[in-house]
Amino acid sequence: MGEQVEAGLSPAERRRHKVRQTIIEAAERVFAEEGEDGLSIRRLADEIDYSPGAIYKYFSSKQELVTELREAFFEKILEQMKEVPDERAPFIEYAQSCIETYIRTALKRPYHYAAAFSGSRSPSDDAVDPDHLSNSRRAFEQLHHMVAQGVQKGVFRADLDTYLASKSIWAACHGLVQLMGHLPNLASGFFVGPSHDSDHLIKTHAALMIRGLSE
Amino acid sequence: MGEQVEAGLSPAERRRHKVRQTIIEAAERVFAEEGEDGLSIRRLADEIDYSPGAIYKYFSSKQELVTELREAFFEKILEQMKEVPDERAPFIEYAQSCIETYIRTALKRPYHYAAAFSGSRSPSDDAVDPDHLSNSRRAFEQLHHMVAQGVQKGVFRADLDTYLASKSIWAACHGLVQLMGHLPNLASGFFVGPSHDSDHLIKTHAALMIRGLSE
DNA sequence: AAAAGGAAGTAAACACTGTTTGCTTTTTGA
DNA sequence: TCAAAAAGCAAACAGTGTTTACTTCCTTTT
Fold it and tell me: Is the pLDDT of residue B34 over 70?
């Protein structure tokens, strides 16, 4: 899914789209393993048997390419989060899996996730076109929806500023992903004290936040 | 404080130390404003009227230089956190200001803070010499101390795994710093929805976590 | 004091990076 | 078929961190 765009296009457009896709796929492969540092235009060009300059016929900059990878990934996070809604399950469980899903999915591609919050993000990135929110923002909205629902159901405190609280939750998730992400740096050995398995850490982290929001 | 090292050193050593300090100060100036990207060896050399190569007589790599800036900064965070302990005040207030101090101090130098959790951090950075914990780790220990105290005083839940909980708290602080840091990217416009002033956000964030830990 | 040794500093090069330019080839549409 | 446009390439530009070979200066030893 995702590519039913190919209908009614001229052969030229289809070819162009195909090459673009080839670039993205190669970039994805390298980026997922080695991040932005490992992904150089020359290496990418080499991998797809093109010249470095050719890539600039498809992407105006390396940044644009990375942005595309990142946004595609956040779309996946968003999808995963939307598959959660067990409306019949107790709300707490729903909230728990909502948060856990965000963290777990983000952790599957640490470099993609990191790209959303580092590097040069032009401030006007979303501002120019408020209707077309970036997927990373949509993911936040999804989180906010969960919080608002909790308040409405009387599970969370009624006096909560739902947006403010969502920012806290988001920040907390964000922090955990960053610290747990098995990037070369923070990696395994970063946390001090006895090591805990990821699963346990994620679960208690989510539970702690939910408890913080609850009545 | 900090530089009473200069006693009993040969003139040569004193001169060397002085140049090293000059480099660090210039680096600090640039790095605080423009981060790792803005800090280039050539620019740094230019600023102190040395040749680029000369810097490598004092630092084996740019990474080492940045690490030194970062560690110096975490020492400051640590100091700030140690000035907090109003043991007579209610524990909740102590905990609140402990967390707030960490976040506020970190936010004063977003680039320094970010340097601790990005870039190439060799895994063996601390592992080789467990006695000499890096300042960033000491800051974590300080946080853990606070949590353990809370449990001991019966304010926090008795069944808490204090290390596990500290990791959560740390991650949550970390995330907020990252998202609030006025780096060019995430900056002002990153958060969605109505904008909240930093102070409010920090306060509620800390309160939410404390509430999550409490009985 | 003079010679030997080592550290400090430099200019130039190396091996990279993202990006732009000018040119050639290929493909397209009239 | 032929002109225009798009695709691709080699080479260059401007920048990066880092290393090398060399000089210059200071320090230590004789």
Answer: yes
Which residue does chain A place closest to B164, by CA atoms?
Answer: A201
Whole-number average pLDDT of chain B: 85
Q: Other C-beta atoms within 10 Å of B213: how many?
A: 22
Residue reference for tokens 């140049």: B19
List the structure tokens of B68.
């030194």
Mean pLDDT calculated for residue range B52-62: 97
How many residue pairs bridge chain A and chain B with CB atoms within 8 Å of each other?
159
The first and second tokens of residue B19, run together, are 């140049």
The b-or-e profile of B89-116 (16+ CB within 10 A means b, else e) is eebbebbbbbbbbbbbbbbebbbbbbbb
> Strand, helix or coil at B71?
helix
What pLDDT digit, counting tens, does each position of A70-82 carry? 999 999 999 999 8
Q: Which residues of B touch A213 (CB under 8 A)?
A: 208
Q: How many CA atoms lie within 13 A of B116 on its CB side?
A: 28
Query: Would you call B118 exposed, middle or buried from its count of C-beta atoms within 10 A (0-12, 13-18, 19+)?
Result: middle
* Neighbouring C-beta atoms of residue A44, cutoff 10 Å: 20
- pLDDT one-digit tens code per residue, A60-104: 999 999 999 999 999 999 999 988 766 677 899 999 999 999 999
Q: Do B167 and A208 touch (CB under 8 A)?
A: no
CA of B205 to C1' of D5 (A): 57
CA of B90: how far to CAs of A31, B31, B142, in Å?
Answer: 49, 39, 18
Say if the Cβ atoms of B178 and A174 lie within 8 Å: yes
SS3 content of chain B, % helix, strand, coil (to 5): 70, 0, 30
Q: Which residue is nearest to nucleotide C9 (CA to C1')?
A: B54
Neighbours of B139 (CB within 10 A): 25
